[in-house]
Amino acid sequence: MNPRIAFVAAPLLTMAYGVIRIFDGFDGERGPGLAWTTGHLAFIAALAMFVLTFLQMRRMAGRNTLSTVSATIGIIGIVSLVAQFSIDMVVGFLSADHAAMGVHFDRIQAVPGVLFVVYTVVPLLFFVGQFAIVAQLAVQRRVKAWTPVLVLLDCVVPNLDKDLMPLGALFLLISFIPLAGLASRTAEPLPVAA
């Protein structure tokens, strides 16, 4: 796969999730239904692309200890988010209406550790790892100094108001375009079978 694809697809799929989420809320509640499921699938696809971006950024940063730790932290956050969004989709499938979803979520989140690992703390590692590795690339002068600023805005803005997720994704797309170019220029050739 061309390394540029993940750097463009990840923010675009995140933006798609954010827009679908807004449309899903027009009736005053989100889920269950087609918009709930479609939005969650778009974000899970985005998370798969983010794994590839972390691996590429680690390579671009020189595969050193800091980039390895940052990428690992980010991928742990991704795994947590995939678990969260998968649970959300299952709850959507099992629920006849929004009120029933609340009952299912209460039961799931009452399981010791689930709230911490899947919903509140561990998912934040995705943002921490992403900012750390992009900041490292900026310190190495592989990207411009404004790049981690935009990544940080993408981390903060949707957490202030989830309806701002498309705006955060736009910041991320702008910051990822130079990374996509860098990934293409520094791509390692694929091994040729003898």
From TrEMBL:
<protein>
    <submittedName>
        <fullName>Uncharacterized protein</fullName>
    </submittedName>
</protein>
<feature type="transmembrane region" description="Helical">
    <location>
        <begin position="114"/>
        <end position="139"/>
    </location>
</feature>
<feature type="transmembrane region" description="Helical">
    <location>
        <begin position="67"/>
        <end position="94"/>
    </location>
</feature>
<feature type="transmembrane region" description="Helical">
    <location>
        <begin position="164"/>
        <end position="183"/>
    </location>
</feature>
<keyword id="KW-0812">Transmembrane</keyword>
<keyword id="KW-1133">Transmembrane helix</keyword>
<keyword id="KW-0472">Membrane</keyword>
<feature type="transmembrane region" description="Helical">
    <location>
        <begin position="34"/>
        <end position="55"/>
    </location>
</feature>
